[in-house]
From TrEMBL:
It catalyses: L-aspartate 4-semialdehyde + phosphate + NADP(+) = 4-phospho-L-aspartate + NADPH + H(+). Substrate binds at Q155, R233. Residues 2-118 form the Semialdehyde dehydrogenase NAD-binding domain. The active site is at C128 (acyl-thioester intermediate), H240 (proton acceptor). It is an enzyme of class 1 (oxidoreductase). InterPro entries: Asp_semialdehyde_DH (IPR012080), Asp_semialdehyde_DH_beta (IPR005986), NAD(P)-bd_dom_sf (IPR036291), Semialdehyde_DH_NAD-bd (IPR000534), Semialdhyde_DH_dimer_dom (IPR012280). The gene is asd. Homodimer. Pfam families: Semialdhyde_dh, Semialdhyde_dhC. Transmembrane segments: none annotated. It comes from Parabacteroides absconsus. NADP(+) binds at S9, G10, A11, V12, R37, S38, S158, G159, Q313. This is Aspartate-semialdehyde dehydrogenase.
Length: 336
């Protein structure tokens, strides 16, 4: 496979390199692309050095089979044609194409076959908060149709990029030294704080991040599922957590729900509260799966169920999901 990574210097771009190597993804040729600022930087992959090329409108993508793209929505929109015109499959981590009718939005554990119908050669990677939620929801949907979801997210700094992670770390150090914390990546100091504001507010009082969870979930699950989200930034480095409540068509027993989670691809069940066993971002960071715990029947609604999920935002929330899409295409022989 001839592989390109666009946005190679970013947090997700760097994770693509780690994930591709760790999963022994078959690569004959690798090309790294970035902005004029990151062009010239060198990265090592499988013992060989690669230099970032500046992304330009030329024929650099000729012969590329799959391009993993994580460089912001503007870059994805501007370069989609350049990337795909020679037949490369563009797996895009930005939100640019997610809701386009002719672009599949894919989580391999939930709707892999959607990736086979990509008239523009583009496959969209969902938002990180959506990915971890739908992996868990799929286990329940297999038992009984989910009518509605309420979810509160506890989103790590990594969602805003490597510089945001560095800012959070720096804030703790500055505060420890009695200095004024640097506040640039978020609306307020994040250290020792929670910020109920991710992305921008829309006319209905929800943020764009919260509306992504509504719109993307319906597209991925091909369902009329109703999702009401509250997305919160928390002082955690790289794993997102979510408190989820679902209402299903029929009442579900805890036993069948636990069994469904235990058998679900991509899920690790961590649910033994009596032994203080439940998922936490500190221990889930750098892992691949969606960790599920705190499972309980809703005491206010016989068809209600509550649970807690944690997953690494940079891996399953971005780079790993995109690589798993490419692995699926390879497995079914649907890529050059
Ligand atoms: C965030 N989900 O966490 C958004 C973008 N990665 O900031």
């Amino acid at each position: 496979m001839n592989v390109a990574i666009v946005g190679a210097s970013g947090a997700v771009g760097q994770e693509f390199l780690r994930v591709l190597d760790q999963r022994n993804f078959p690569i004959d040729n690798l090309v790294l692309f970035g902005s004029s600022r990151s062009a010239g930087r060198d990265y090592t992959f499988r013992g060989k050095q690669y230099t970032v090329k500046e992304l330009k409108h030329n024929d650099d993508f000729k012969g590329i089979d799959v391009a993993f793209v994580s460089a912001g929505g503007g870059t994805s929109i501007e370069f989609a044609e350049t990337i795909t015109k020679h037949g490369a499959v563009m797996i895009d981590n930005s939100s640019a194409f997610r809701m386009e009718k002719d672009v599949p939005l894919v989580v391999p554990e939930v709707n892999p076959e959607d990736a086979l119908d990509r008239p523009r050669g583009i496959i969209a990677n969902p938002n990180c908060t959506t990915i971890q939620m739908v992996v868990a929801l799929k286990a329940i949907e297999n038992l009984s149709h989910i009518k509605r979801v309420h979810v509160a997210t506890y989103q790590a700094a990594s969602g805003a990029g490597a510089t945001a992670m560095a800012e959070l770390k720096k804030q703790f150090e500055q505060l420890l030294n009695g200095e004024e914390p640097t506040v640039e990546k978020f609306a307020y100091q994040l250290a020792y704080n929670l910020i109920p504001h991710v992305d921008v507010f829309t006319d209905n009082g929800y943020t764009k991040e919260e509306m992504k969870m509504y719109n993307e979930t319906r597209k991925i699950m091909h369902s009329d599922i109703e999702v009401s989200a509250t997305c919160v930034r928390v002082p955690v480095m790289r794993a997102h957590s979510e408190a989820t409540w679902v209402e299903t068509e029929r009442p579900l027993s805890l036993e069948e729900v636990r069994q469904a989670f235990a058998q679900m691809d991509g899920v690790v069940l961590q649910d033994e509260p009596a032994k203080k066993v439940y998922p936490m971002p500190l221990f889930v960071a750098d892992h691949d799966e969606v960790y599920v715990g705190r499972i309980r029947k809703d005491l206010t609604n016989p068809n209600g169920l509550s649970f807690w999920t944690v997953s690494d935002q940079i891996r399953k929330g971005a780079a790993l999901n995109a690589v798993q899409i490419a692995e699926y295409l390879l497995k079914v022989g649907n890529i050059r």
